[in-house]
Input
Amino acid sequence: MHITMQEKINAARSAQQVWAKQSWKDRVRSIKLLVPYLAEHGEEIAAIISRENGKTMVDALATEVVPAALGVRYYCRLGKKFMHLRPIKGGSVLLANKRSSLVYQPYGVVGIISPWNYPFAIPFSEVVMALLAGNAVILKVASNTLQVGRVLAAAFESLPLPEGLFHYIEIPGKEAGPAMISGGVDKLFFTGSTAVGRELMALAAPRLLPLVLELGGADAAIIRADADLERAAAGLVWAGLANAGQSCGGAQRLFVHQSVYDEFLAILTRRVQTLRVGLSFIGDEPQWDCDMGCMTSRQQKEEVRRQVQTCLDAGARIAARSPSGDMDGPGLDFPALILTDVKPDMPIMGEEVFGPVMAVVPVSGDDEAIALANDSIYGLTGSVWTSDIKRGYVIAQRLRAGVVMINDHLMSHGLAETPWGGFGASGLGRTHGEAGFREMLQSQVIIKDILPGAKKNLWWHPYSRQVFEGLLAILHVVGVRGMVKKMKALMGLTGFFFRYWDRS
Output
């Protein structure tokens, strides 16, 4: 029997009402079972990720399965603190009788649409946070990685959750967002392209449906003259080329101080030329000597090939390439490429190139590097490579990016405690960390009056000239200049405050 999206959301809403009433301790007791599950099935899950996505077994374990387990432990340990009632400090002694608190409520049914580049880690943490916060979940994974989606679903279906609380669905990508929005989800999380993010915003607008959008990036790295060039090159080869460059937070535009440009490019070239590119699996055997796997789809390979060819036709030069990988062949392998002589209007500088390609650009100093880094509609992540950490912080704060790393790049998504999200066309809202956990909750303010025996507020009916003069005296106490005038206003308030106990 076919169950419609509306019916799934209705079932999820019923289950959520039961789940939300459970104590935090009881919810944690269920969710924390994911940690031993991942430990017992981790190698199997990594193999499925590697086969279907194309990344290496090492990448699958290091960037997807291990962070997922660490995330469960983190949110189970600290999520209660993120949800705890918080007193709000008073704003004025004149209203000291009003005590406010901030509390958090689950949204209800959360929809999650996840991508194919990190098909396990990205949705996994979002589902964990949603459930711990007391929500139900409808999960849709990318059509390119359905096997990964099924093993992810199996992990959550192994838990003792109320029936209908978690739904895993397989429908075409173009149908998922409209179906979830029209079906009545209470919040939608989407990771994918900026173009689709804009479409979802338009669909959500009539309902004023809240969205969290983690979209594209064309991330910049600034390599200063005082950087450890060997570390910078090693780190950026990993950040830009791991997962065949299919990372929204991967390094794409490298801005290198001109005094070390030639030396850095030589080191980078050496590392790229020794990079072992190929299939992550041959038959049933993982290829352990493979550093970079293949691309996930023929469509994505063709798009990256087009972008690279456009750059080359406009005068860019391939300064380095991996010894294996075929840009034009029928397979999914693609060479790691370093481009130089690039111009601002080339795709490598203005578009998200979702493949193993980086551009290296010489700059005269920090100001030029920052200006070029910020010359993008995207602002997901970035990095600064320097031995002067204090200066690195200064530069980081001038970059228009949601996450900036010093002497590292890309890895912050693996830190459960750090919020993930960007500026500009890179999206809205945050996932991960306290900020990401709070995205699963609606904030609610509760205010109580602690004045004993009070019958009314000062501004309640009946109105009179005396009420107006009393309120004007409050304004004068707050804002009038001069101590004499303030004291006069305070004297005018003495009788006015007795209105609190006036029964009329």
